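pls read this stuff:
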Amino acid sequence: MNILRELLNEIKTDDNLEKIRILCDQIFEEEKPNQKYPEKRPVGPNLFLVLEVPGSLQNEIGFLGLERESEGVYLVILFTSSQINIDSEFPHIIKRKKVWEINDDRPEKILTTYAKHYKILIGE
C-alpha cells in the first residue's frame, strides 16, 4: 500500500482521474509481456486497465477490467470468452460475467480493490 501511495504521489497532477489513467497505463505496459492475448482484450473509452486472468471453465479466457461508470463510481469487471472465439480470425464474443462496484474516487482505494480481485482470480 505504501508503494502505491508513493507511485501516486510521483504523478504530477491533482486530477485523480488522470492519476488512475497514468498508473493503469504503466501497469498494463509492465504486465503486457505476461499477457497471452493483449490484442484481444476488451477496450473502451472508460476502460482504464484490462489484464488477462484464467477462466473459471475449461477452454475459457478471462479478462479483468477497471472501468469508470460515472464520477465517483468505478467497476471491476470480469469478462470471459471461449478459447475458440479468441483463437478465431473473426470478431470474438466477450461477455461480462461478474461486476463489482467501487463507490469511491480515491485512486489508492480503486487500484487496491482492483488488485485484490486480480490476485484472487490468478490464484495468489
